[in-house]
Design brief:
CATH class of the largest domain: Mainly Alpha
Helix content: 40-55%
Structural class: alpha+beta
CATH topology of the largest domain: DNA polymerase, domain 1
Shape: globular
Number of domains: 3
CATH superfamily of the largest domain: 5' to 3' exonuclease, C-terminal subdomain
Strand content: 15-25%
Strand order of the largest sheet: 1-2-3-5-4
Length: about 210
C-alpha cells in the first residue's frame, strides 16, 4: 500500500484533474481534486502527495491529496453507497475542504447539489451517512463554523466560484477575468461547465 509519494512534478492537467509525479525515475499518474491541484507546484518543482490506492478488477488507480485530512474525507466519501472514487474527488473539488465539511455537518443539501455529478439523492445519501462523522476532520483543519443560513452558498455566484478555482490552479487573476467574460454565455449551467469553458479560452491564448 502506498501511503504518500514525494518527487518532482512532470505534468499537471487541470482538465483531467491529474498530476504526473516523477519518483526515482518512475512517473506516477495521480488523480487529484481541483483543491489539491491548486496546491501542486509548477512543473519541475518538488511535491509530496498523500496517496489512496484504488484497485478494481484490472484497474489500479492512485488518488492524491495535499494533506492527510483530505484523504480521510475521501475515504469517508467512498464509503457512502453509490459514491465511487471519481465522484468523491469531484465532491472534494467542489469547495474548500473546511466549507465542504461544514456543509455536510449542517446538512446543506443545496450546496452539495451544486457540485457536478451530485444530484439530490446522492447529496441526501452523503448527508445521511456523514453528517455525524465529519466533526473530527473539521477540528483537524481548524475549519470555521458552517454558513449561518440554511439553504444557499454565501452570496457567491458561479462566476465567483469559477474565478477562485482557476486562480487556485495557477492562472493569473487578470487572465481569468477575461476568460470568464468570454465564457459567460448568459445561459443557466453548472460551475463545472463554466470552469471548463473558461479553461478552453485560457488554453487557447498564445
Amino acid at each position: 500500500m502506498i501511503g504518500w509519494l514525494s518527487g518532482t512534478v512532470r505534468a499537471r492537467d487541470p482538465l483531467a484533474g491529474e498530476v504526473i509525479l516523477d519518483v526515482g525515475g518512475v512517473g506516477y499518474q495521480i488523480t487529484v481534486s481541483l483543491q489539491t491541484l491548486g496546491a501542486v507546484p509548477e512543473i519541475g518543482e518538488a511535491c509530496t502527495l498523500w496517496i489512496q490506492t484504488h484497485v478494481r478488477e484490472d484497474v489500479l488507480a492512485l488518488f492524491g491529496f495535499a494533506d492527510p485530512t483530505e484523504r480521510r474525507a475521501f475515504r469517508l466519501l467512498i464509503g457512502v453507497p453509490q459514491v465511487g472514487p471519481k465522484l468523491a474527488v469531484a465532491v472534494l473539488g467542489g469547495f474548500p475542504l473546511g466549507e465542504l465539511l461544514a456543509a455536510i455537518e449542517a446538512e446543506h443539501r443545496t450546496l452539495l447539489e451544486r457540485i457536478p455529478g451530485v444530484g439530490k439523492r446522492t447529496a441526501e445519501r452523503i448527508l445521511l451517512d456523514l453528517k455525524d462523522k465529519v466533526a473530527p476532520l473539521r477540528e483537524a483543519i481548524g475549519a470555521a463554523a458552517g454558513p449561518a443560513d440554511s439553504g444557499t452558498h454565501p452570496t457567491s455566484s458561479f462566476a465567483d466560484d469559477a474565478r477562485a478555482v482557476l486562480v487556485n490552479l495557477g492562472w493569473k487573476a487578470k487572465d481569468v477575468d477575461a476568460a470568464l467574460t468570454k465564457a459567460d454565455d448568459g445561459q443557466p449551467g453548472t460551475l463545472d461547465a463554466l470552469v471548463r469553458r473558461a479553461l478552453a479560452h485560457l488554453m487557447s491564448r498564445p
